[in-house]
Amino acid sequence: MTVSDAPQITTSGEDRLIARYFRPLARAPGAFGLSDDAAVLEPPSGWDVVLKTDPIISGVHFFPDDPPDAVARKALRVNLSDLAAKGASPAGFLLALALPPTISEHWLAPFARALGEDADRYQCPLLGGDTDATPGLLTVSITAFGLVPHGTMVPRNGAQVGDHVVVSGTVGDAALGLRLRRAAPGSPVPAAPVRDHLLARYQIPEPRTGLAEVLRHYASAAMDISDGLVGDLAKLCRASGISAHINTAQVPLSEAARSMLEIDPGLLDTILTGGDDYEVLCTIPSAHLADFRSAAAATGIAVTIIGQVVEGMADPRFTDAQGELQSFGRPSFSHF
Fold first, then answer.
1. Are residues 133 and 227 in the same domain?
2. How far apart are CA 157 and CA 315, in angstroms?
3. CB 3.0–4.6 Å: which of 65, 113, 228, 295 could bond 214 by disulfide?
4. Of 149, 181, 202, which residue constitutes the final position of a domain?
C-alpha cells in the first residue's frame, strides 16, 4: 500500500473546536498547546498552590440570553474572586464545557475571545480542560489555580475577638441587578444610569485581585461574598468559632443602590442577603488596621469597616443606626 492509498485519519469535530477556539489561549508551557491529556503547573520554590472550582450553569448563574462574552468573563472571574480572598495570585485555569445543541460557533467565537482577554488581563492562562455535548443546560466549569508564599494563604477560620470586620467595594448591587432582570414586564424601571450600573454588576463581577497581597499581610480571615453578606459572614464566624456585630448603616452602598433603597426601604434585605457581590469580606486585627487601610488605598480598591468580631458561637448580629436588631427571612442564597 502506498502512502496515497493509506486511509486518512480525520480530526474530530471536538478536536477542531478546541484547536480553533481554545488552543490559542493555552500559551503557558505546561499547557502543551492542549495536545496532551493533562497539564503541568510547577509552582516556584517556597510557594503553595491554591485550588478553586466554581461552575456556572445557564438559568442558574446566568440568563440563557446573556451575551457569550459576559458568560465567559463571569465564569473566570467568580473563581478569581475566591483566589483573591485567599491572598493568591492567579496562575492558570482548567476549562470544562458542556454544550447543548443550541450553542453554535457563532456563540463560541465571542466566548473564547472574551475568555482569552480576561486570561491575559488577570495573567491566568488556560492550561487544559474538556468539551462535551449535553442534552441539558449549558455549563461552564472552571478550576482556577493560584499561588501564595508557603503557609500564607488567608483562611476562613482565623478571625479573633476584637478584629474589625471589613468589606471591599459596595454591597448589594448585583442582587438588585438580578431583581431587575427578573422583574415582570411593566414593572417600574429605575433611571438608565441606575439600571445599567446594577445590571452590569450582576452580569460581570470585578474580582478584587489587587487586594490579594494586602490580605496576605494583614487579614486574619477572609472569603468572598458570593451568597450574600449576612450568610457569608455567618459561615466565616462558624469556621472561626466566634460571632460578630455589624452596623448595617456602615455597609457601603453605591449611589445606584441608595437610590433604589430610597424608593423601597424593604430592599435592604435583598442588599444584605442577595449574593453575587464577589467583594472581599475579611477580618483585620486592630494592630494592623492602619497599615491595612493604607495598603488597600494604594490599590485603589475601597474598603469599609462595618463591625467587629465578638465572643460567642451565635450567628452575627446586624443592627441599624438606632441599634435595633435586624432579622432576615432568608439570610443566604442556597442552591438546595
1. no
2. 15
3. 295
4. 149
- The pLDDT tens digits of the residues spanning 77-125 come to 999 999 999 999 999 999 999 999 999 989 999 999 999 999 999 999 9
- Whichever domain contains 215, its CATH number is 3.90.650.10
Question: Are both 170 and 318 inside the same structural domain?
Answer: yes
Whether the CB-CB separation of 318 and 326 falls below 8 Å is answered with yes
Domain, as residue range, for 129: 13-149
Tens of pLDDT, residues 217-238: 999 999 999 999 999 999 999 9
Helix, strand, or coil (residue 315): coil
CA-closest candidate to residue 140, choices 120, 181, 113, 112: 112
Q: Please state the pTM of the whole predicted model.
A: 0.90
Taking CA atoms, 144 is separated from 57, 129, 298, in Å, by 17, 11, 26
First to last CA, the chain: 62
